[in-house]
Design goal:
heterodimer; A: 376 residues; alpha+beta; Methane Monooxygenase Hydroxylase, Chain G, domain 1; BirA Bifunctional Protein, domain 2; 2 domains; two-stranded antiparallel sheet; B: 832 residues; Phenylalanyl-tRNA Synthetase, Chain B, domain 1; OB fold (Dihydrolipoamide Acetyltransferase, E2P); Phenylalanyl-tRNA Synthetase, Chain B, domain 3; five-stranded antiparallel sheet; 21 helices; 37 strands; Phe_tRNA_ligase_alpha1_bac (chain A); magnesium (chain A); Phenylalanyl-tRNA_Synthase (chain A); ATP binding (chain A)
Chain lengths: 376, 832
């Protein structure tokens, strides 16, 4: 009996050693150690042996079974490692094939630039507000100190809304005007009406920007009938023209680069006084007007050789605007002797064109996704 | 406004300054340069006076002549010329070899049909003077003393013909700069160049007869003027006899041409010349065509007619200003003269009108008629009444010099302007300037700067300490409408002397709270970012659409969404109304991209939509709100998945959808209203019930609508952000997700087709009790094994207790309660 056990063990170990695949070993496991195999059966039959043989036989059979088991596991591990290596070699793929495509979305360039501008002004301490796109003649022009014959009111410069049977008449001071189609309502031509709405609603001091869509009847490479502006307004007891320059210098450097300078040029806007246009030094030619970086040193096309690029209009809030706010509020909170401040308005598309080299504004509203995806 | 440099040089001493330098100074003091251009021949020094010695027919070309022309050299040159009027003996302008013509072509030695040609004899148009190009310019006929000019003399010496021209943008508050003298004053203030006396003053060279008031009195024999409207503050007239109408002298034509005006005849040219210098429009009547000798300035009544100078029959409207004589209206005042009284070839007597008008009235008329002539646009700005006298004075001299006409009688000068209160000086506080500009400007410097612009400044108390003074300022008449307040003076000081060198500062006072986006603004960004993260491209559609868009969407005329806000003056019919829904933009953009070969359109937009109904927030304005909408080329569940992501990211919990077949542009079986139940018992307007709010729509676009946009199956959602964003929770409180394992099981329940998944989930949720963490449908199956008209829904249920591991008994208890509730509430039976 003991001999038979030794025999089984030796034969089994020889078979295991001879096996070359894990599949063969799995078969051997069944044949040597499975339910119908001889060795386990001997173990199960130990109880039927004479008592004096039970001990030695059981011990020998058990040792043989454990030994076989270990040999088998060791051999399986040995072969499995080799087989995995072989499989990995066989599984090799061409990693230069394309990945499974996930659609990549993107913000429209206008949104992207609007957020950049918002973030810069948040950092400078301005809150962000939005306002309505349809407006009254009062908020868009009258309260902003536009003379009755100011050309911005012309039908060639402003979209007026047709009279509507569904809306009550707009109350307004003065003559009904030929240009407004009799409705007194229009599509805002700038975000500036929100200067008035904000001051009517909130006490000084205020520092806000107002991004939003505005409308003017123009259409060419640099004008679209709808576009976007960011209005700015800072009113307190001591805000000066020099502060305006400082704030806009910070803005210009954030958006166009740390080396930029700004220049104020006097201009005229009805609702600011003094009024200035703000130029930023050209980032293509570093303000020299000449492209030293290009062959032949041509004149800079971006700034037309002037070294400066106009980016926005601004000025100190006109006392008439503050007075008009005071009349609507019925208090002195915005008395021109008590508070002062600046306002500015810039075109988001213009900043986008400058920053991203968009050649034709109309491209931004064609919404060709192949164009838009460039900025995704 | 075009400013020829040589003309400017007569009014202000700009010697030694070139156009670029002047433009640069103007640019930083408030007068923007549109462009700097060169008028006429680019190399004026190469154009000389020549004399035609002889002409012979070209041997090989009928229309050409071979001319021998003396041009100051040792030998005459040979020039081949095609002009019919060239003849021996003429004095002519000769463009020599090397001349660069206005269009950039260079004159070279050439052979024309075998004959050498060494230069070009020029026409007036080739020189940039007027329109005449039917022949060469015979100087001997048009330039007095031309025969005495030695050949070879530079033409510029006897006839300035080429010039640098500043094209300036004049802001609407500066009508004084629509006259060259106004520009000259700006140039003087900006550069320090000496301003010359105004040419309408005696210091500027006029004699007394031309002055104001007229020493000859205020009457003209046979003519009178009545002003019957307050909108004409001043009307002046002078009569000139002995006028000979003809072409203007070349110098005058050359000047007008350089300033961008076409020469017409000497009388009209004088009125234009004077307008360009003074900024004040003038109008010349043929005095013998004024019926009855009486001009009445009045407001028109509706329907009156006249034929204007441009030969158009025009109907005027009540309130518009006209000038009438015995035969009716003879001039559309301040805008355009009438054809009936126009100066013509045979005119010998001219009545010259120079008047002052109410700007806004003229502006309105010009705008209605689309007639913004040089005169109308100046009158529409509102000029100073004093300017009328300046223009009369200068015109009187020029009419005499140029047409031979002599002033007869005095100057009619009517209108109420002299009754206006005298102008009061404006007080200017020294400290106020510093306080607003943020940099110190002494009052002596303030006075200097204002004086350079023609203001009269008086320091009323010179002993007052620096910084505490006050000065009194009188404004020149032509600036009176623009400068009425202290702040206007401060602007003048700023633009001439401060702005260019202002040092930037940052506000001293800063508030203590940092600026942040509002929760709604943050939520909007989050919503956009979620869609971008799911692979959608944001687009920016037009706010405009055409009036037929609602009909293409299938909306009936009485659908509220069909009530579009109409523009009164749209750019085109395609952009005649404001979009009532972003869907129109998305459909348009999807179609365009598909036409360009994009085969999987996934787009969204955030923008404003409009409706012709009162906005509850502003009852006299149309309703508008901010919306976000997405379109994908896929089915409803794709769009719903996006919406789930979006609402989930915003933390909107209590939302649901409800099927609807009532939205015309959506598939009637695949459309839903999107509802949100405000969290935390929030009430709208403080009094409404806590019912769910409809915040938008979800669905597949109706195939018939999609087809109109050439689209396949597309699904959309559109959400009213003005409603949704306020419902976004600002803060989300911490919730313990539990340390103990959950228990999960699935159920397949068969229900009738009419039973919605939402109601099955609702029934399960109601029965689940506090242990139920989540329940949802993960599959719907119809077909083999499921009775006709029924559907099998697979539910996934997850249970959890915060404080223990659930045992089998608890789990099966919940399961049984759910199964019972499904049977009872939705008629569900377990499958298999
Ligand atoms: Zn540049």
């Amino acid at each position: 009996m003991i001999d038979r056990i030794a025999q089984l063990r030796a034969a089994g170990e020889a078979d295991v050693a001879a096996a070359t695949t894990t599949d063969e070993l799995e078969e051997l496991r069944v044949r040597l150690l499975g339910r119908k195999a001889e060795l386990p059966n001997m173990l199960r039959g130990v109880s039927e042996l004479p008592p004096e043989q039970r001990g030695p036989v059981g011990k020998a059979a058990n040792q043989a079974r454990q030994a076989l088991q270990q040999t088998l596991e060791a051999r399986i591990a040995e072969l499995a490692a080799g087989e995995l290596d072989a499989r990995l070699v066989a599984d090799r793929v061409d990693v230069t094939l394309p990945g499974r495509r996930e659609p990549v979305g993107g913000l429209h360039l206008i949104t992207r630039v609007r957020r950049e501008i918002e973030d810069v002004f948040l950092g400078l301490g301005f809150d962000v507000l939005e306002g309505p796109e349809t407006e009254t003649v009062h908020y868009n022009f009258d309260a902003l100190n536009h003379a009755p014959n100011h050309p911005a009111r012309d039908r060639s410069d402003t979209f007026y809304l047709a009279p509507s049977a569904n809306l009550p008449a707009v109350e307004r001071a003065g003559d009904p005007r030929a240009e407004d189609g009799g409705s007194g309502r229009l599509l805002r031509t700038h975000t500036s009406p929100m200067q008035i709405r904000t001051m009517e609603r909130e006490d000084p001091p205020i520092a806000v920007i107002v991004p939003g869509r505005v409308y003017r009847p123009d259409s060419d490479a640099t004008h679209t009938p709808q576009f976007h502006q960011v209005e700015g307004l800072w009113v307190d007891v001591d805000i000066t023209l020099a502060d305006l320059k400082g704030v806009l210098l910070s803005f210009a450097r954030s958006i166009f680069g740390d080396e930029r300078e700004v220049r104020l040029r006097p201009h005229f806007f009805p609702f600011t006084e003094p009024s200035v246009e703000v130029d930023v030094s050209c980032f293509a030619c570093k303000g020299t007007g000449i492209r030293e970086d290009l062959a032949g040193h041509p004149r800079c096309g971006l700034c037309k050789g002037t070294g400066w690029i106009e980016i926005l209009g601004s000025g100190l809030v006109d006392p008439n605007v503050l007075r008009s706010v005071g009349e609507a509020r019925g208090d002195d909170a915005y008395s021109p002797e008590a508070v002062q401040g600046f306002a500015f308005g810039m075109g988001i598309e213009r900043i986008a064109m400058l920053r991203y080299g968009v050649p034709d504004l109309r491209l931004l509203y064609e919404n060709d996704v192949r164009v838009l995806e460039q900025w995704a | 406004m075009r400013v020829p440099l040589s003309w400017l040089g007569e009014l202000v001493d700009v010697a030694g300054r070139d156009a670029t330098e002047i433009a640069a100074r103007l640019n930083v003091t408030g007068t923007e340069l549109d462009r700097l251009l060169h008028h006429g021949i680019l190399t004026p020094e190469t154009v000389v006076v020549g004399r035609v010695l002889a002409t012979e027919p070209h041997p090989d070309a009928d229309r050409l002549k071979v001319c021998r022309v003396a041009t100051g050299g040792d030998e005459p040159v040979q020039i081949v010329c095609g002009a019919p009027n060239v003849a021996a003996g003429q004095v002519v302008p000769v463009a020599q070899i090397g001349t660069v013509m206005p269009d950039g072509t260079k004159i070279k030695r050439a052979k024309l049909r075998g004959q050498v040609s060494e230069g070009m004899i020029c026409s007036a148009r080739e020189l940039g003077i007027g329109d005449a190009h039917d022949g060469i310019l015979a100087l001997d006929e048009q330039l007095p003393g031309a025969r005495e000019i030695p050949p070879g003399t530079p033409l510029s010496d006897v006839l300035p013909h080429a010039d640098d021209v500043l094209e300036l943008e004049i802001t609407p508050n500066r009508p004084d700069c629509l006259g060259l003298y106004g520009i000259a004053r700006e140039v003087s203030a900006a550069t320090g160049a000496a301003l010359r006396p105004a040419p309408w003053t005696r210091a500027g060279g006029l004699d007394e007869e031309a002055g104001d008031p007229d020493p000859a009195g205020d009457a003209i024999d046979g003519f009178s003027v009545e002003v019957r409207t307050p909108r004409c503050p001043r009307f002046t007239a002078r009569l000139f006899d002995g006028v000979t109408v003809g072409p203007s002298p070349l110098w005058l034509q050359a000047r007008l041409a350089a300033a961008g005006q076409r020469p017409i005849n000497n009388v009209v040219d004088v009125t234009n010349y004077v307008m360009l210098v003074t900024g004040q429009p003038l109008h010349a009547f043929d005095a013998d065509r004024i019926a009855g000798g009486l001009l009445v300035v009045r407001e028109a009544t509706d329907g009156e007619q006249l034929r204007t100078l441009d030969d158009q029959e025009r109907t005027v409207q009540a309130g518009e200003l006209v000038i009438a004589d015995d035969e009716g209206i003879t001039s559309l005042a301040a805008v355009m003269g009438g054809a009936r009284s126009e100066v013509h070839e045979g005119t010998t007597r001219v009545l010259l009108e120079v008047a002052n008008w109410d700007g806004p009235t003229i502006h309105r008329t010009a705008q209605r008629l689309g007639l913004f002539s040089e005169a109308a646009s100046r009158n529409a700005k509102g000029l100073a009444p004093e300017q009328a006298a300046w223009a009369q004075a200068l015109a009187t001299r020029l009419i005499h010099e140029v047409t031979g006409g002599r002033k007869v009688g005095g100057t009619i000068d009517v209108g109420g302007w002299r009754e206006r209160p005298a102008q009061q000086p404006i007080a200017l506080r020294e400290a106020r300037v510093t306080r607003l500009l943020g940099t110190a400007v002494s009052r002596r410097r303030q006075a200097e700067l204002l004086a350079s612009l023609g203001f009269m400044v008086a320091d009323t108390s010179p002993e007052t300490a620096e910084g505490e003074g006050e000065q009194l300022v009188l404004v020149p008449s032509e600036r009176r409408d623009d400068i009425t307040r202290e702040i206007d003076l401060i602007e003048e000081i700023a633009r001439i002397g401060v702005v260019a060198d202002l040092a930037p500062t940052l506000p001293v006072r800063r508030r203590l709270t940092a600026a942040t986006l509002t929760p709604a603004q943050r939520a909007r960004r989050r919503a956009e970012d979620v869609l971008v993260g799911r692979g959608l491209q944001e687009v920016a559609g037009w706010s405009f659409t055409d009036a037929g868009a609602a009909e293409r969407l299938g909306l009936s005329a009485d659908d509220p969404r069909a009530a579009a806000v109409r523009l009164d003056n749209p750019l085109s019919e395609d952009h005649a109304v404001l979009r009532p829904t972003i869907l129109i933009s998305l459909l348009d953009i999807a179609r365009r991209n598909r036409a360009r070969g994009v085969d999987d359109v996934r787009i969204f937009e955030t923008g404003t939509v409009f409706r012709d109904a009162p906005d509850p927030r502003r009852p006299d304005m149309p309703f508008e709100h901010l919306a976000i909408a997405a379109l994908v080329q896929d089915d409803l569940f794709a769009a719903k998945g996006l919406l789930e992501s979006l609402l989930g990211a915003l933390g909107i919990d209590g939302w649901s959808v409800e099927a609807t077949d009532q939205v015309a542009f959506l598939h009637p079986g695949r459309a839903a209203r999107v509802l949100v139940t405000p969290a935390g018992g929030a009430r709208r307007n403080g009094d409404g019930p806590d019912g769910p709010l409809q915040v938008g729509l979800l669905g597949e676009v109706h195939p018939r609508v999609a087809e109109r946009w050439d689209l396949p199956q597309v699904a959309v959602f559109m959400i009213d952000l003005d409603q949704l964003l306020p419902l976004v929770p600002a803060d989300v409180d911490f919730r313990d997700v539990g340390q103990f394992p959950d228990a999960r099981f699935d159920l397949a329940v068969i229900v009738d087709d009419e039973v919605t998944a939402a109601s099955v989930v609702e029934a399960a949720r109601g029965a689940g009790g506090p242990l139920l963490e989540q329940v949802g449908v993960f599959d719907a199956y119809r077909g083999t094994g499921i009775p006709e008209g029924q559907v099998s829904l697979a539910l996934h249920v997850r249970l959890r207790a915060a404080d223990r591991t659930l045992d089998d008994e608890e789990i099966s208890g919940v399961r049984e309660r759910i199964v019972a509730a499904l049977a009872e509430r939705v008629g569900g039976t377990l499958r298999g």
